[in-house]
Each structure stands twice: as structure tokens, then as C-alpha cells.
Amino acid sequence: MNLINNGLALATVASENGELTERFVYAPPDVERRPLRELVEVRRCGDDTALRVTAGLVALYAPAIAEDDAPEDMDDDESWLPWCVFCDETLTHPDEHGAGPYPTPDFAEGAAS
């Protein structure tokens, strides 16, 4: 888990129909273990705006295998991918799905240009 902003974890937010609504937000690190309909507050990266969304729409990013679990700077890690805590699977892989339905940071290895 990536605790990189005041104890919050890097995450992404989808809409009810599965469309990506927020590429990068900071969310509570236990958000994927909360009830799906529980309202949680996430904060947008960059402008730090607070958003209230249901926990089931938030997916935490996980560091790539053997990468720092809590980097001091995002430039320290280049392969951040969304990961599902319930099925223990990476939700997309740039080499297999291009940009895929889930985001990869612009600086990520293999990210679509």
C-alpha cells in the first residue's frame, strides 16, 4: 500500500457505470475493506479538493513488485498500477492492455503517450 500523503494512500475513483472519474486521489488506506456503500472522503492530487464518494468506487494503487511501499517522491517509483485487494490482481498491465480501462501515470514505464 502506498502511504504517501498524511497517512492517505494513492487511489483512483470510478463512477457507478465503471467510467474513470478521478485518475489520482488520496484515500484512506483501508477504503477497500470498508462496506461498498459507505461514504468516504478522498482528496484530489494537486489541488487537494475533498470529494465524498462511496468506498466501492475507489481502487488503491499498489507498488510494483520489489518497489518501495512508501516512496518519498513519486519519481522514486515508475510502475504504479491499480490493484484489487479482494481478488489480489493488478487491474491492468501496460504491456497487455495498452492504457487499459484504468489509468497509469504519464511517467509510468510502458504508459501510453
UniProtKB/TrEMBL annotation:
Disordered: region residues: 94-113
Name recorded for this polypeptide: Uncharacterized protein
Lineage: Bacteria, Bacillati, Actinomycetota, Actinomycetes, Pseudonocardiales
